[in-house]
Amino acid sequence: xxxxKRYNTFLxxxxxxxxxxxGMGFHPSSARAYHTYKERLLDTTAYSLHRxxxxxxxxxxxxxIIDQLQVTTYTMPWLLGLIFEDVxxxxxxxxxxxxxxxxxxxxxxxxxTGAIEQPDGTKxxxxxxxxxxxxxxxxxxxxxxxxxxxxxxxxxxxxSQPDGTAVEGAVVVDFLQLxxxxxxxxxxxxxxxxxxxxxxxxxxxxxxxxxxxxxxTIGAQLQGDLSELQNAFAVIPGxxxxxxxxxxxxxxxxxxxxxxxxxxxxxxDVLSNISVEFDVFVRx
Length: 284
Description:
Layout: H1 2-25, E1 54-57, E2 60-66, E3 69-74, H2 75-83, E4 90-100, E5 103-117, E6 123-138, E7 143-160, E8 166-185, E9 190-202, E10 205-212, E11 217-224, E12 233-242, E13 246-255, E14 257-259, E15 264-266, E16 274-283
Antiparallel strand pairs: 1-2, 1-16, 2-3, 3-4, 4-5, 5-6, 6-7, 7-8, 8-9, 8-10, 9-12, 10-11, 12-13, 13-16, 14-15
């Protein structure tokens, strides 16, 4: 009952903010950022920044190298890397290789790497490489739809020496994510979004390891079951508010939580089945 009340409260707050800002948006405004023919949503779409445009936000930083190519780094991995005393460099290249009339297509490639040291001395290193394809269809000047797929490969290794015994291992897991988003521009200030995310495929967790207790060395291969993440999904209604340069994206939905920047999925019961979209950024 408490979880349901908390979830309903989040939805009510998002709805009130959206309706209030929508009312403001129907008045004449000099807003320019997203909600014009030229300026488009970047996240969960096929669009990228134009040449020399900059996006500085709470969740990521982006720069338009040319009209068809932008480079992005996500802030959360860097911050968590500082907390765990090991930086987590990450970079994403996104190319809108086709953008004509009502259709835009893009491809992106990214990498994320870092390490986490456990209290027992175990050090876990990870390397994540996602590849994405996306399409955006402009139905009319106010309504657009966006579709995409991302395949993410996760490789990692760990080593520790508890009680003088050396343990080393490597971890491999892959998964596929699909998404769709409906976008309705209520005004030049407010856009309504409705996002669906789904994970139709997750590989088994494969662990290759060795145990060196002096002599001999023992090798082992283990498999972990990640079936709880297969068919993970999220349904997220939200709003994007755009003023002269400042922008806010706010959405609250249901079920599993998809972590942008880490390209991973957190099971819904960890966060009480609440999935959130939130970002504050400027674009110029």
